[in-house]
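User
Please review the sequence:
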Amino acid sequence: MIQRPLVTPTGRRRSFRAVLKHEQPSVERWRIAGSGVMGEPTDAPNTKAVVEALRANGVEVRFYSLGSPAGVDSHHLEARFLDGGLHAKTGSYFYGKKGAWIDGPEAVKWVGQLLDLG
């Protein structure tokens, strides 16, 4: 069963814009809200819901981690579908952006439909 953190405590579904943020008008990329976590990407409830919905609909989601002798880890997700896909990079590093993104207007529209976003 897909977890639905995308529903408010009162039972109303969250809006598309509350869950998926368009990064820049010139880039067809949407950031999953709340996805910049220090642990694995699926530690963020919205990212976990997206991954579960994709897997439930036959999309292969690849997960891998990288570590270093300094004890800094990075965790990654990758999935290709429609005109783009999902990619995420999170971890205990202190440089660059952490988060999960969906690329492609058709891909983000389909994810919004899978999650029944308003």
